[in-house]
Amino acid sequence: MAIRTYTLKSAQPAPALRIDYRSQLNEEQLAVVEAAAGPTLVIAGAGSGKTRTLTFRVARLIEQGCPPESLLLLTFTNKAAREMLKRVGELCGGLADVRRIAGGTFHHVALSLLREFASALGYSERFTLLDREDARDLVAASIGDLGLSVGPRRFPKAEVVLDLISAAVNTEKPLEEVLVDRRPQFLAMLEKIGAVAARFAERKHEMQVMDFDDLLVCWKLLLTERPEVRVKLQERFRAVLVDEYQDTNRLQGDIVDLMAAGSRNLTVVGDDAQSIYSFRGADFTNIIEFPARYPGCGLYRLTRNYRSTPEVLELANASIACNRRQFPKELVSARPSGPRPALVPVRDVYQQAEFVAQRILELRDEGVSLSEQAVLYRAHHHSMEIQLELARRGIPFVVRSGVRFLEQAHIKDVLAYLKFVHNPMDELAFKRVLKLYPGIGSGIADDVWALLMRLGDRTSPLAALQRPDVRQAVPKRALPGFERAADTLLDLADHRLQSAPGEMVQKVLSGGYEDYLRDQFLNGEVRADDIRQMADFAGGFATLHDFLSEVCLLAEFESEDVVEGSEPDEQVTLSSVHQAKGLEWRAVFVVWLADGRFPLAISLRQPAEEEEERRLFYVASTRARVELYLTYPLVAAPRDNERTLLKISRFVEELPDGEKAPYDRLRIEVSPEPLVLPSATVAALPPVAVAPECPEGAEHRRR
Ligand code: ATP
Ligand code: MG
After folding, report:
1. Is 614 in the pocket of ligand 1 (CB under 6 A)?
2. Which candidate among 198, 309, 405, 609 keeps its CA 20 to 30 Å from the CA of 482?
């Protein structure tokens, strides 16, 4: 038998350029797509097609024969990368398997590279990831290891220490500098915080775990400390492309430079006017100094905006012009004219929520599907009344900015107090409350509940809280916590309060929960504000029973609606401005435009921060394609029987007014006839009839 060799050749399409770039891109964009390999910087305003241009550049590289696995595409979210690559796949029509392109966020790409190379750094390739909560617990354990949790001087909480360590890592600054900038009150503890950081790092390494920051740090270490890996990676990636480059931090900037150091084929696109992540260490000097780092780089600008109508753009341009630190940009709309943005003063947050909900449904009747509409706000908790109002009217929505309001831990904590008082057999609520106090974990909470059941008369654990024999039987170390919990619960059980649920919520806060929040969380104040808003909301109900019934109903609606993978096709997006970066909708509501809310008061401690807040407003308004609504409540919700007048946001105030105002003012009139809501929680919405984007006379519709 003869053995013959048979050579198999895989078919490779000839590298012919098939995509008709000219029909899809303008001259400026085309110039970027066709720019020769080499360092390339695109600085351009919102909606000018940066992301689109980057997508086409990737497609062109593929067309020119670059193997997909030699391309690295870094984006702000993994979803953005997936969408861009899907588009590349469509454009290239099967020319290459675009799934082999390394694309995603910095963290995502870091993880996959480290799965391959972690051993070079002494890690097992099967290292596990620590999420934020785990990381915080490990910092707490490290503080404990060093015996720092006890002592006469207050050592910062684990959450705060973790944030400081993280800031130092991401900005590549010494801890001392970070402390001076962010938490000068802890400067005296610099050495100790440093020791905790070291212990934390040691512990992570012992356990073979990495937190999110480690992913980036280790990626950089591979490139700086492991020449054999560096050479491999620099040879592997023949082109590096980065979207939203203005929001990279120091560490990410370095990684990009190192990854591209071999090919020097680096394309970055960004908009300094949209840099909104300095609190996470983003540093727009990365983009500003790009030409200095890469002398002779290609520098491109895109000047036509394809997203928004001239009316929307006029408002956004007028706003960003108030910033001093920026590259001035001329951005001209390439779209037909549409309605002018509407400025909508509303009585208070409830009217704001009603306006938004009603207008959303009207827009839908006019042919704008719910998925083409978004509500944007500066802080997640600003969405509370709107979430509740949408839920009440059965309008499906998705929240991008975080956990849905009623699913947040601190909201659930407070509700637990109320639920237990309302129904003292609610074991879960009781244990949740108890575990908020020092020295009490699940084990003790179980024991205490058993105790109440044994010593009480079984039908009223609330009454049993007062019994001396119960108090005596509680383990010593948990006793102070138990007593405080019991006192607060007994206080709440006061009959007069049962008809004032708003006051009950306030009482939980003032009865120690606010201190708890401050101690536990860096953003404790924001969380306390959430609770105060909940108190206002609760204040609108006649009894505790009514309040809890409504809240539980809404919570149920919410959890039904968020089941992974069962997203209804059509839902309104609720998002913080930060999470809305890069996205667009036909109709956008920017809410809570009162000074102190947007700009957010706590973000205005330094002058530079006002400019960052204004950039946020610019990002918010440039998300709209056609319709933009700016709403601001005239009074804050009544709290302690006081009405606080609000000032309109300086970002609206400073815009030209009178004849030159880039908006129309909408006056709200309350109809004497209330709207009767359908009895079912979720109203069945009829299918939407899609309307053209800018119909003639669209500006009259609103009146
Ligand atoms: P942002 O700064 O918000 O990230 P961007 O500069 O990345 O915006 P893109 O999202 O790429 O802008 O584009 C904005 C919108 O304009 C998209 O809907 C895009 O498809 C469209 N667009 C961009 N360029 C063109 C063009 N040449 N022809 C038609 N539509 C375009
Ligand atoms: Mg973009």
Report:
1. no
2. 405
422 lines ligand 1 (CB under 6 A): no
Contacts of 460 (CB under 8 A, 6+ apart): 424
Asked if residue 26 has its Cβ within 6 Å of ligand 1, the reply is yes
Helix axes 132-145, 190-207, angle to 10 degrees: 120
Torsion angles phi and psi, residue 682, rounded to 5: -105, 110
Q: Does residue 249 contact residue 281 with C-beta atoms inside 8 Å?
A: yes
> pLDDT category, 184, cuts 50, 70, 90?
confident
Which of 22, 33, 51 has most ligand 1 atoms within 8 Å of CB, for mutation? 51
pLDDT cut 70: percent of the chain above it: 89
Most confident of 150-154, 493-497, 549-553, 591-595: 591-595
CA distance 33 to 20: 12
Per-residue tokens: 357: 């909900």
* Residue 73 to residue 100: CA distance in whole angstroms: 11
3-state SS, residue 346: strand
| Atom from ligand 1 closest to the CA of residue 54 | 11
Q: Could you tell me the CATH superfamily of domain 407-552?
A: PCRA; domain 4 (1.10.486.10)
Determine contact, residues 192/146, Cβ cutoff 8 Å.
Answer: yes
- 653: which 2 tokens? 């105030």
Report how far residue 302's alpha carbon sits from residue 29's, in angstroms, rounded to the nearest whole number: 7
Task: Give the residue-averaged pLDDT of 413-428.
Answer: 87
Confidence bin at 403 (pLDDT 50/70/90): low
φ, ψ dihedrals at 349, nearest 5°:
-65, -30
Task: Determine whether the shortest distance from the Cβ of 197 to ligand 1 is under 6 A.
Answer: no
Q: Which two tokens stand for residue 81?
A: 């990368």
Atom of ligand 1 nearest to the CA of 305: 16
CA–CA gap between residue 500 and residue 533 (Å, rounded):
15
Fold of 23-118+223-302: Rossmann fold (3.40.50)
Do the domains 23-118+223-302 and 339-399+563-701 sit in the same CATH topology, yes or no?
yes
Residue 602: which residues within 8 A CB-CB, separation 6 or more? 525, 526
Q: Which pair of structure tokens corresponds to residue 199? A: 């212990």
Q: How far apart are CA 133 and CA 139, in angstroms?
A: 10
Count Cβ atoms within 10 A of the Cβ of residue 547 and give its class: 0-12 exposed, 13-18 middle, 19 or more buried: buried
Task: Identify the residue whose C-alpha is closest to ligand 1 atom 2.
Answer: 46
Q: Would you say 408 and 414 are in contact if contact means Cβ atoms under 8 Å apart?
A: no
- Ligand 1 centroid distance, CA of 84 (Å): 12
606 or 646, greater pLDDT: 646
The ranges assigned to domains in the chain are 23-118+223-302, 128-207, 339-399+563-701, 407-552
Does residue 152 come out as left (phi exceeding 0), alpha (psi in the -120 to 50 range) or beta? Answer: alpha
- Nearest ligand to the C-alpha of residue 301? 1
Contact partners, residue 228, CB within 8 Å, separation at least 6 = 120
DSSP secondary structure code for residue 208 in this structure: T
Beta sheet of 40-44, edge-to-edge order: 102-104, 71-74, 239-242, 266-270, 40-44, 298-302
* pTM, to two decimals: 0.78
Q: What is the DSSP letter of 24?
A: H
pLDDT at 79: 83
CB 488 within 8 A of CB 508: yes
Mark 635-673 as b/e (b = at least 16 C-beta within 10 Å). Answer: bbbeeeeeeeebebbbbbeebeeeeebbbeebeeeeeee
Overall CATH class of domain 339-399+563-701: alpha beta
Is ligand 1 within 6 A of the CB of residue 306? yes
